[in-house]
Design a protein that fits this description.
The chain is an alpha+beta fold. The chain contains eight helices and nine strands. The strands form two sheets. The protein has a seven-stranded mixed beta sheet with strand order 1-9-3-4-2-7-8. A two-stranded antiparallel ribbon has the order 5-6.
C-alpha cells in the first residue's frame, strides 16, 4: 500500500469527463435499479459487515477501477446515493435534478486494509477541492462525498478529512461532504465492472488506462 500511495500525484488526476460516453450505450437494455437500503437494515456479505464505506469522487467508472485494484478491497459496486428520487436511472442522474451523487460502495477486509487507508486512496483519486465538479464533469452528481455507515466510520472520515486539509497538498479548501449513508441504488448493469468489461473502449483507453498505469495498478479480471 505504501508503494502504491507514493505513486499517486496529488495533482488533479485525469477527470472522468467521458462518463457521458454512456449515452452511446442507451441501446443496451438496462433494468430499473433495485433499491438497496442502508446497510443497517439490509443483509450484507461478511465482508460488508466487516468494512463498508460509500464514496463519491466524480464518474464512478474511474473510482471503481481504482478500488478494484487495491489489496484488501473485496467488492466495489457503482450506484447512486444522496438524492430525493426513488429508483433513479442514469438518465435522470445526468440531469443533476435528482440530488444523487454517482458513488461506489466499497467493501473491504479490515484485516488487510483499514478505513484510514481506504480514505487515503480517496483523497488522491480525485480532486476534493472542487465543488460539484471533477474536471469537465460539472453538476451535483459529481460532488465529492463520503457516506458513512456507522458513527465510528464518521469519526474516521472526519479525522481523515482534517488531516488531508492540513497536509499542504491542496491549494484550496476541501469541500467533501461527510454525511450518513442513505438508500443506495445500484447503477444499471452496464455500469458495473465497467473498465474490466470495456477496457478497449475509447474512454477507457484515453482516461482509465493512463490513470491506472500512473498509479502502478494492473489490469485484472
Amino acid at each position: 500500500m505504501n508503494t502504491f500511495l507514493r505513486l499517486f500525484s496529488w495533482t488533479t488526476l485525469l477527470c472522468c469527463a467521458a462518463c457521458s460516453e454512456a449515452n452511446d450505450k442507451t441501446a443496451k437494455p438496462a433494468s430499473t435499479p433495485k433499491p438497496i437500503v442502508n446497510p443497517s437494515n439490509e443483509p450484507l456479505t461478511k465482508a460488508a459487515k466487516a468494512g463498508s464505506i460509500t464514496l463519491g469522487g466524480g464518474c464512478f467508472w474511474c473510482v471503481e477501477a481504482v478500488y478494484q485494484r487495491i489489496d484488501g478491497i473485496t467488492k466495489v459496486t457503482s450506484g447512486y446515493m444522496g438524492g430525493t428520487v426513488a429508483n433513479p436511472t442514469y438518465k435522470q442522474i445526468c440531469t443533476g435534478r435528482t440530488g444523487h451523487a454517482e458513488v461506489v460502495k466499497v467493501e473491504f477486509n479490515p484485516a488487510k486494509i483499514t478505513l484510514e487507508k481506504v480514505l487515503a486512496v480517496f483523497w488522491k483519486a480525485h480532486d476534493p477541492t472542487t465543488l460539484n465538479r471533477q474536471g469537465a464533469d460539472i453538476g451535483t452528481q459529481y460532488r465529492s462525498a463520503i457516506f458513512y455507515h456507522t458513527d465510528a466510520d464518521k469519526a474516521v472520515a472526519e479525522k481523515s478529512l482534517k488531516a488531508a486539509g492540513k497536509s499542504g497538498e491542496f491549494r484550496s479548501p476541501i469541500v467533501t461532504e461527510i454525511t450518513p449513508a442513505a438508500t443506495f441504488y445500484k447503477a444499471e448493469g452496464y455500469h458495473q465492472n465497467y473498465f474490466n468489461l470495456n477496457a478497449n473502449a475509447p474512454y477507457c483507453r484515453a482516461v482509465i488506462w493512463p490513470k491506472l498505469r500512473k498509479l502502478g495498478l494492473k489490469f485484472k479480471d
